[in-house]
Amino acid sequence: MDDQIIIDVRGELCPTPVIETKKISDAYPYEEIITIVDNDISKENVEKFGKSKGYAVITNKQGRDYFIVLTPRLPGTDEEALQRILTKHVGENNHKLGVPKERITSTPERGQTVESHTLGIVRDDEIVIPDITENSHSFQDASLSRHRIILVTKDYLGEGSEDLGRTLMKTFWNCLVEADTYPKAIYFINSAVKMVCVTSDYIDVLKQLVTAGVDIAACGICLNYYGLTDRVAVGTITNMYTITESIVGEDIVTL
């Protein structure tokens, strides 16, 4: 583990730091990752992610910034050797952690190429730019859950503020497309059908799910009610009988 992949997501709120860290973890499962964040919630969530994936996790604080080091537990590495690896990160004067923010920012979206200074690998104290396109876990790699269906009943998530609910809904879709397992189908009813239409903010991410094999369908009577039948931009139009028949006996998640 001579390389360190550094992800600088200072200024970003969750779930972005976790998502960016997961992308690199998927692409480089045997490399050490250092994620830099500047708030407590992101720190805690990245630490939880690292531990859930079996990394040894250690965090250094420098000023307002947290440097979270995720070290993979490689086969054949005993605890004593792992502790030696971790010990080198303890202390605020580790020069490898002091990477200026302008040198590295966040990781690319899946399917995008890596642009200069998108992320950095520290190798022999020099920062090099990796080619993530060869190793990256793409959304086509995610498996489908053959018994999981999501029923979306409105165009915002939760109760209370609808504006906040729409922000949460957008975050939900962005997280879902990064998940390791997708539902086999997503059905949209009532006002949720607006999300599959041409003016929707969710079209791109929903198209990614369709490409990955997820069946996306909107209720025809609902589209007609909102005058959107000819505005569908992703998925297919279905009916309540088909939706009902599909969800009976399945594992349903209702939004």
Tell me about this structure.
The structure is a single chain. About 20% of the residues have low confidence. It is built from 7 helices and 11 strands. The longest helix is centred in the middle third of the chain and has 16 residues. Helices cover 29% and strands 24% of the residues. Strand 7, helix 4 and strand 8 form a beta-alpha-beta unit. The chain is elongated and about 55 Å long. The protein has 2 domains: 87 residues, Translation Initiation Factor IF3; 107 residues, 3-Layer(aba) Sandwich (Hypothetical Protein Ychn, Chain: A), CATH 3.40.1260. The protein has 255 residues and is an alpha/beta fold. Helix 1 packs parallel to helix 2.
What's this, in brief?
The protein is of the alpha/beta class and 255 residues long. The protein contains seven helices and eleven strands.
How many helix segments? Answer: 7
Strand count, sense and barrel status of the largest sheet are: 6 strands, mixed
Topology order in helix (H) and strand (E) letters: EHEHEEHEEEHEHEHEHE
What count of structural domains? 2
Q: Write down how many β-strands occur, each being a DSSP E stretch of 2 or more residues.
A: 11
Share of residues in helices: 25-40%
Label the CATH architecture of the largest domain. 3-Layer(aba) Sandwich
Fraction in beta strands = 15-25%
Overall pLDDT metric:
72
CATH topology of the largest domain: Hypothetical Protein Ychn, Chain: A
Shape: elongated
Protein name: UPF0033 domain-containing protein
Pfam families: TusA (PF01206)
Organism: Veillonella montpellierensis DNF00314
Domain UPF0033: 6-69
